[in-house]
Amino acid sequence: MTEKGKLIVISGPSGAGKSTVVFKAIGNRQDICFSTSVTTRQPRPGEVDGREYFFISPERFQEMVEKDELLEHATYVSHSYGTPRAYVTEKLNAGMNVILDIEVQGARQVRQKLPEAVLIFIIPPSLEELRRRLEGRGTDSPEAIRGRLERARQEYAEADFYDYILVNDDLEEAGRQFEAILTAEHLRAKDRMELLRTED
């Protein structure tokens, strides 16, 4: 019997290194994939439907919302994005662990619709370190960095419902901790009760 996969939701402020931690942890594992979202925006050059996103019309998106076909959804700069429930369910039933990188509000929606999802909030060791990382990128203006730091404070205040808080101070250690969470979640007794059956 194929063991069902886990939905792993990761959130955290811009600059926390979420994707870097995940890629460090999963390496070449074949049992983990990132969820593919739906979006109403047009594909950018080089983007392929079904790879970066599922590109759909605003009408189809609204239909998916009304039929509860999305685990979470949000609108950014006049374009809508969401996580298709059917895609995630198919991957989980096939034994894949699905990683969903979304903001706190989306994670709260997922928690309501899929309570068994594993929620991990990834943060830098301090807001001062976050400032250094953002400045080190060299891509944001001082005003944009101030905005990102303020947004981080808001996210910290709202993130009291996550299962784990992972501090990305040392990348190697953070990757090991992410793997440890995944291992522990797959060993939960409630998911393995069939192993205790003694009848033939």
Keywords:
40% helix; alpha/beta; Rossmann fold; 21% strand; 200 residues; 5-stranded parallel sheet; 7 helices; 4-stranded mixed sheet
Describe the structure.
It is a single chain. The chain has 7 helices and 9 strands. It is of the alpha/beta class and 200 residues long. It has a single domain, classed as Rossmann fold. The strands form 2 sheets. A 5-stranded parallel β-sheet has the order 2-7-1-8-9, with helices on both faces. A 4-stranded mixed β-sheet has the order 4-3-6-5. β5 and β6 form a beta hairpin. α1 packs across α7 and α5 packs antiparallel against α6. The two termini are 16 Å apart. The model has no long low-confidence stretch (mean pLDDT 93).
List the helices and strands and how they pair.
Blueprint: E1 7-11, H1 18-26, E2 32-34, E3 37-39, E4 53-55, H2 58-66, E5 70-76, E6 79-84, H3 85-93, E7 97-101, H4 104-113, E8 118-123, H5 127-137, H6 142-158, E9 164-167, H7 171-186
Parallel strand pairs: 1-7, 1-8, 2-7, 3-4, 8-9
Antiparallel strand pairs: 3-6, 5-6
